[in-house]
Amino acid sequence: xxxxxxxxxxxxxxxxxxxxxxxxxxxxxxxxxxxxxxxxxxxxxxxxxxxxxxxxxxxxxxxxxxxxxxxxxxxxxxxxxxxxxxxxxxxxxxxxxxxxxxxxxxxxxxxxxxxxxxxxxxxxxxxxxxxxxxxxxxxxxxxxxxxxxxxxxxxxxxxxxxxxxxxxxxxxxxxxxxxxxxxxxxxxxxxxxxxxxxxxxxxxxxxxxxxxxxxxxxxxxxxxxxxxxxxxxxxxxxxxxxxxxxxxxxxxxxxxxxxxxxxxxxxxxxxxxxxxxxxxxxxxxxxxxxxxxxxxxxxxxxxxxxxxxxxxxxxxx
Length: 317
Known about the structure:
The protein has 10 helices and 13 strands. The protein is an alpha/beta fold and 317 residues long. The chain has 2 domains: 9-160 and 199-223, NAD(P)-binding Rossmann-like Domain (Rossmann fold); 162-197 and 228-282 and 293-316, UDP-galactose 4-epimerase, domain 1 (Alpha-Beta Complex), CATH 3.90.25. The strands form 4 sheets. It has a 7-stranded parallel β-sheet with strand order 3-2-1-4-5-6-11, with helices on both faces. Strands 7-10 form a two-stranded parallel ribbon. Strands 8-13 form a two-stranded parallel sheet. This is NAD-dependent epimerase/dehydratase domain-containing protein.
Protein backbone atom coordinates (compact mmCIF):
# COMPACT_ATOMS: atom_id res chain seq x y z
CA UNK A 1 0.00 0.00 0.00
CA UNK A 2 1.18 3.51 -0.79
CA UNK A 3 1.77 5.70 2.26
CA UNK A 4 1.82 9.47 2.39
CA UNK A 5 4.58 11.17 4.36
CA UNK A 6 2.21 13.86 5.62
CA UNK A 7 2.32 14.61 9.35
CA UNK A 8 -1.27 15.95 9.46
CA UNK A 9 -3.56 14.15 11.90
CA UNK A 10 -7.26 14.36 10.92
CA UNK A 11 -9.93 13.52 13.51
CA UNK A 12 -13.39 12.71 12.16
CA UNK A 13 -16.15 13.43 14.67
CA UNK A 14 -16.20 16.02 17.45
CA UNK A 15 -18.10 14.25 20.20
CA UNK A 16 -16.37 13.75 23.55
CA UNK A 17 -13.89 11.24 22.10
CA UNK A 18 -13.02 13.23 18.97
CA UNK A 19 -12.69 16.47 20.90
CA UNK A 20 -10.51 14.90 23.60
CA UNK A 21 -8.39 13.20 20.92
CA UNK A 22 -7.86 16.38 18.90
CA UNK A 23 -6.84 18.16 22.11
CA UNK A 24 -4.41 15.36 23.00
CA UNK A 25 -2.84 15.24 19.53
CA UNK A 26 -2.30 19.00 19.56
CA UNK A 27 -0.78 18.73 23.04
CA UNK A 28 1.66 16.17 21.62
CA UNK A 29 2.70 18.68 18.97
CA UNK A 30 0.91 17.33 15.90
CA UNK A 31 -0.88 19.50 13.34
CA UNK A 32 -4.56 18.58 13.77
CA UNK A 33 -7.75 19.01 11.74
CA UNK A 34 -11.05 18.26 13.49
CA UNK A 35 -13.95 17.52 11.14
CA UNK A 36 -17.66 17.47 11.90
CA UNK A 37 -20.91 18.47 10.22
CA UNK A 38 -21.00 22.03 11.58
CA UNK A 39 -17.49 23.14 12.68
CA UNK A 40 -19.17 25.30 15.32
CA UNK A 41 -17.58 23.94 18.50
CA UNK A 42 -15.37 25.86 20.89
CA UNK A 43 -11.88 26.73 19.72
CA UNK A 44 -9.14 24.25 20.69
CA UNK A 45 -5.54 25.46 20.78
CA UNK A 46 -3.59 24.04 17.84
CA UNK A 47 -6.64 22.48 16.17
CA UNK A 48 -8.18 23.59 12.87
CA UNK A 49 -11.91 22.93 12.64
CA UNK A 50 -13.47 21.95 9.32
CA UNK A 51 -17.06 21.38 8.25
CA UNK A 52 -17.58 18.10 6.41
CA UNK A 53 -19.93 15.19 5.80
CA UNK A 54 -17.94 11.95 5.79
CA UNK A 55 -20.95 9.78 4.94
CA UNK A 56 -20.23 10.43 1.25
CA UNK A 57 -17.05 9.61 -0.62
CA UNK A 58 -16.68 13.19 -1.82
CA UNK A 59 -17.16 14.55 1.69
CA UNK A 60 -14.74 12.08 3.21
CA UNK A 61 -12.11 12.74 0.54
CA UNK A 62 -12.32 16.50 1.12
CA UNK A 63 -12.22 16.10 4.91
CA UNK A 64 -9.00 14.11 4.95
CA UNK A 65 -7.15 15.74 2.09
CA UNK A 66 -3.47 15.87 2.99
CA UNK A 67 -3.84 13.56 5.99
CA UNK A 68 -1.11 11.26 7.23
CA UNK A 69 -3.20 9.66 9.97
CA UNK A 70 -7.02 9.60 10.12
CA UNK A 71 -9.00 8.86 13.28
CA UNK A 72 -12.59 7.66 12.84
CA UNK A 73 -14.49 8.83 15.92
CA UNK A 74 -17.80 9.65 14.22
CA UNK A 75 -20.82 8.81 16.32
CA UNK A 76 -24.37 8.45 15.03
CA UNK A 77 -27.69 8.64 16.85
CA UNK A 78 -28.55 5.17 18.15
CA UNK A 79 -31.67 4.66 16.06
CA UNK A 80 -29.81 5.59 12.85
CA UNK A 81 -26.69 3.48 13.31
CA UNK A 82 -27.65 0.40 11.28
CA UNK A 83 -28.23 2.56 8.22
CA UNK A 84 -25.62 5.27 8.56
CA UNK A 85 -22.54 3.70 10.18
CA UNK A 86 -21.80 1.22 7.33
CA UNK A 87 -22.18 4.05 4.82
CA UNK A 88 -19.62 6.12 6.72
CA UNK A 89 -17.24 3.17 6.78
CA UNK A 90 -17.38 2.73 3.01
CA UNK A 91 -16.76 6.43 2.43
CA UNK A 92 -13.94 6.73 4.95
CA UNK A 93 -12.15 3.53 3.95
CA UNK A 94 -12.22 4.51 0.29
CA UNK A 95 -10.97 8.02 0.97
CA UNK A 96 -8.20 6.84 3.32
CA UNK A 97 -7.03 4.33 0.72
CA UNK A 98 -6.87 7.02 -1.95
CA UNK A 99 -4.99 9.37 0.35
CA UNK A 100 -2.43 6.75 1.40
CA UNK A 101 -3.08 7.58 5.05
CA UNK A 102 -3.24 5.29 8.08
CA UNK A 103 -6.59 4.74 9.77
CA UNK A 104 -7.23 4.52 13.52
CA UNK A 105 -10.79 3.45 14.43
CA UNK A 106 -12.51 4.03 17.76
CA UNK A 107 -14.48 0.85 18.39
CA UNK A 108 -16.90 -0.66 20.91
CA UNK A 109 -17.28 -3.94 22.80
CA UNK A 110 -20.45 -4.77 20.86
CA UNK A 111 -18.89 -7.45 18.58
CA UNK A 112 -18.27 -9.73 21.58
CA UNK A 113 -21.96 -9.96 22.43
CA UNK A 114 -22.89 -11.66 25.68
CA UNK A 115 -19.93 -13.10 27.59
CA UNK A 116 -21.81 -14.54 30.61
CA UNK A 117 -19.51 -12.53 32.84
CA UNK A 118 -16.19 -13.65 31.35
CA UNK A 119 -13.62 -10.88 31.17
CA UNK A 120 -13.14 -9.51 27.67
CA UNK A 121 -9.68 -9.49 26.10
CA UNK A 122 -8.64 -9.05 22.49
CA UNK A 123 -8.85 -12.85 22.16
CA UNK A 124 -12.52 -13.05 23.22
CA UNK A 125 -14.63 -14.57 20.39
CA UNK A 126 -17.01 -12.29 18.52
CA UNK A 127 -20.43 -13.78 19.21
CA UNK A 128 -22.78 -10.83 18.92
CA UNK A 129 -26.42 -11.65 18.26
CA UNK A 130 -27.82 -8.10 18.44
CA UNK A 131 -28.31 -6.17 15.20
CA UNK A 132 -25.86 -3.46 16.21
CA UNK A 133 -23.36 -6.00 17.53
CA UNK A 134 -23.42 -8.00 14.30
CA UNK A 135 -23.13 -4.79 12.30
CA UNK A 136 -20.10 -3.66 14.30
CA UNK A 137 -18.47 -7.08 13.93
CA UNK A 138 -19.00 -6.98 10.17
CA UNK A 139 -17.50 -3.50 9.97
CA UNK A 140 -14.49 -4.61 12.00
CA UNK A 141 -13.96 -7.58 9.71
CA UNK A 142 -14.02 -5.16 6.78
CA UNK A 143 -11.39 -2.96 8.43
CA UNK A 144 -9.09 -5.87 9.20
CA UNK A 145 -9.58 -7.34 5.72
CA UNK A 146 -8.59 -4.01 4.15
CA UNK A 147 -5.40 -4.16 6.21
CA UNK A 148 -4.65 -7.80 5.34
CA UNK A 149 -5.19 -7.08 1.66
CA UNK A 150 -2.71 -4.21 1.81
CA UNK A 151 -5.26 -1.55 0.85
CA UNK A 152 -5.15 0.50 4.07
CA UNK A 153 -3.10 0.36 7.27
CA UNK A 154 -5.76 0.06 9.97
CA UNK A 155 -5.79 -0.31 13.75
CA UNK A 156 -8.83 -0.52 16.05
CA UNK A 157 -9.00 0.76 19.62
CA UNK A 158 -11.90 -0.59 21.68
CA UNK A 159 -13.31 1.22 24.67
CA UNK A 160 -15.76 0.30 27.40
CA UNK A 161 -18.51 2.78 28.30
CA UNK A 162 -17.14 6.32 28.40
CA UNK A 163 -16.80 8.35 31.58
CA UNK A 164 -15.02 11.62 32.24
CA UNK A 165 -15.07 15.37 31.68
CA UNK A 166 -17.29 16.22 28.71
CA UNK A 167 -19.06 12.85 28.63
CA UNK A 168 -22.84 13.17 28.87
CA UNK A 169 -24.44 10.42 26.76
CA UNK A 170 -23.21 7.50 28.82
CA UNK A 171 -24.63 5.38 31.61
CA UNK A 172 -22.07 7.15 33.81
CA UNK A 173 -22.77 10.63 32.49
CA UNK A 174 -25.63 13.13 32.51
CA UNK A 175 -28.02 10.61 34.09
CA UNK A 176 -25.76 10.38 37.18
CA UNK A 177 -23.52 13.37 37.94
CA UNK A 178 -25.98 16.29 37.86
CA UNK A 179 -28.37 14.48 40.21
CA UNK A 180 -25.49 13.55 42.48
CA UNK A 181 -24.49 17.21 42.75
CA UNK A 182 -27.98 18.68 43.14
CA UNK A 183 -29.68 16.00 45.22
CA UNK A 184 -31.98 15.00 42.36
CA UNK A 185 -32.49 11.46 41.12
CA UNK A 186 -29.60 9.43 39.76
CA UNK A 187 -30.45 6.89 37.04
CA UNK A 188 -28.85 3.45 36.81
CA UNK A 189 -29.61 0.46 34.61
CA UNK A 190 -29.96 -3.25 35.27
CA UNK A 191 -28.10 -4.95 38.14
CA UNK A 192 -25.88 -2.37 39.84
CA UNK A 193 -24.12 -5.07 41.87
CA UNK A 194 -22.37 -6.41 38.76
CA UNK A 195 -18.86 -5.25 37.83
CA UNK A 196 -18.88 -2.85 34.88
CA UNK A 197 -15.87 -1.39 33.09
CA UNK A 198 -15.73 2.31 32.26
CA UNK A 199 -12.98 3.93 30.21
CA UNK A 200 -11.93 7.50 31.01
CA UNK A 201 -12.40 9.60 27.88
CA UNK A 202 -8.89 11.02 28.35
CA UNK A 203 -7.46 7.48 28.29
CA UNK A 204 -9.45 6.86 25.11
CA UNK A 205 -7.85 9.94 23.57
CA UNK A 206 -4.34 9.10 24.76
CA UNK A 207 -4.68 5.50 23.60
CA UNK A 208 -5.88 6.43 20.13
CA UNK A 209 -3.16 9.07 19.82
CA UNK A 210 -0.56 6.45 20.73
CA UNK A 211 -1.94 4.07 18.09
CA UNK A 212 -1.80 6.93 15.60
CA UNK A 213 1.87 7.51 16.43
CA UNK A 214 2.79 3.80 16.50
CA UNK A 215 2.33 1.85 13.24
CA UNK A 216 3.67 -1.25 14.99
CA UNK A 217 0.20 -1.70 16.47
CA UNK A 218 -1.52 -1.83 13.08
CA UNK A 219 -3.61 -4.71 11.77
CA UNK A 220 -5.39 -5.69 14.97
CA UNK A 221 -7.77 -4.74 17.77
CA UNK A 222 -6.50 -3.20 21.01
CA UNK A 223 -8.37 -2.56 24.26
CA UNK A 224 -7.71 1.02 25.35
CA UNK A 225 -6.40 1.56 28.92
CA UNK A 226 -9.25 0.99 31.36
CA UNK A 227 -9.25 0.95 35.16
CA UNK A 228 -10.19 -2.34 36.88
CA UNK A 229 -13.94 -2.91 36.81
CA UNK A 230 -15.98 -1.99 39.89
CA UNK A 231 -19.63 -2.65 40.52
CA UNK A 232 -21.89 0.27 39.69
CA UNK A 233 -22.89 0.35 43.36
CA UNK A 234 -19.22 0.77 44.32
CA UNK A 235 -18.88 3.65 41.87
CA UNK A 236 -22.00 5.29 43.27
CA UNK A 237 -20.54 4.90 46.76
CA UNK A 238 -17.38 6.70 45.64
CA UNK A 239 -19.53 9.52 44.24
CA UNK A 240 -21.51 9.72 47.49
CA UNK A 241 -18.28 10.12 49.46
CA UNK A 242 -17.28 13.00 47.20
CA UNK A 243 -20.58 14.90 47.24
CA UNK A 244 -21.23 14.28 50.94
CA UNK A 245 -24.79 12.99 50.61
CA UNK A 246 -26.62 9.75 49.84
CA UNK A 247 -27.68 9.47 46.21
CA UNK A 248 -31.34 9.12 45.24
CA UNK A 249 -30.80 6.12 43.00
CA UNK A 250 -33.46 5.03 40.51
CA UNK A 251 -32.71 1.73 38.78
CA UNK A 252 -34.42 0.61 35.58
CA UNK A 253 -34.58 -3.17 35.43
CA UNK A 254 -35.78 -3.02 31.83
CA UNK A 255 -35.35 -0.45 29.05
CA UNK A 256 -37.91 2.35 29.26
CA UNK A 257 -37.70 6.13 28.81
CA UNK A 258 -36.31 8.03 31.78
CA UNK A 259 -34.43 11.30 32.22
CA UNK A 260 -32.08 11.93 29.28
CA UNK A 261 -33.04 8.63 27.61
CA UNK A 262 -36.16 9.10 25.48
CA UNK A 263 -38.39 6.47 23.87
CA UNK A 264 -36.55 6.57 20.55
CA UNK A 265 -33.21 5.95 22.24
CA UNK A 266 -34.50 3.22 24.54
CA UNK A 267 -36.24 1.37 21.70
CA UNK A 268 -32.94 1.30 19.82
CA UNK A 269 -30.93 0.44 22.95
CA UNK A 270 -33.14 -2.40 24.18
CA UNK A 271 -31.17 -5.10 22.37
CA UNK A 272 -27.99 -3.93 24.13
CA UNK A 273 -29.51 -3.99 27.63
CA UNK A 274 -27.71 -7.29 28.30
CA UNK A 275 -24.70 -5.10 29.08
CA UNK A 276 -26.42 -4.23 32.36
CA UNK A 277 -27.68 -7.70 33.26
CA UNK A 278 -24.31 -9.49 33.13
CA UNK A 279 -20.83 -8.35 34.18
CA UNK A 280 -19.04 -6.14 31.65
CA UNK A 281 -15.36 -6.58 32.39
CA UNK A 282 -12.86 -5.30 29.83
CA UNK A 283 -9.15 -5.97 30.32
CA UNK A 284 -6.55 -3.73 28.70
CA UNK A 285 -3.32 -5.38 29.84
CA UNK A 286 -2.11 -6.07 26.30
CA UNK A 287 -2.13 -2.37 25.38
CA UNK A 288 -0.64 -1.37 28.72
CA UNK A 289 2.26 -3.80 28.26
CA UNK A 290 2.87 -3.01 24.59
CA UNK A 291 2.82 0.77 24.90
CA UNK A 292 3.77 1.38 28.53
CA UNK A 293 0.39 2.91 29.31
CA UNK A 294 -1.42 3.15 32.64
CA UNK A 295 -5.20 3.49 33.05
CA UNK A 296 -6.58 6.51 34.89
CA UNK A 297 -7.76 5.46 38.36
CA UNK A 298 -11.51 5.63 38.91
CA UNK A 299 -10.98 7.93 41.91
CA UNK A 300 -9.23 10.49 39.70
CA UNK A 301 -11.84 10.09 36.97
CA UNK A 302 -14.67 10.79 39.42
CA UNK A 303 -12.90 13.79 40.96
CA UNK A 304 -12.34 15.41 37.58
CA UNK A 305 -15.77 14.50 36.20
CA UNK A 306 -17.56 15.94 39.21
CA UNK A 307 -15.50 19.10 38.79
CA UNK A 308 -16.52 19.36 35.14
CA UNK A 309 -20.20 18.86 35.95
CA UNK A 310 -20.02 21.43 38.77
CA UNK A 311 -18.73 23.97 36.25
CA UNK A 312 -21.41 22.98 33.74
CA UNK A 313 -24.20 23.39 36.27
CA UNK A 314 -22.80 26.72 37.45
CA UNK A 315 -22.80 28.07 33.89
CA UNK A 316 -26.39 26.92 33.42
CA UNK A 317 -27.59 28.55 36.63
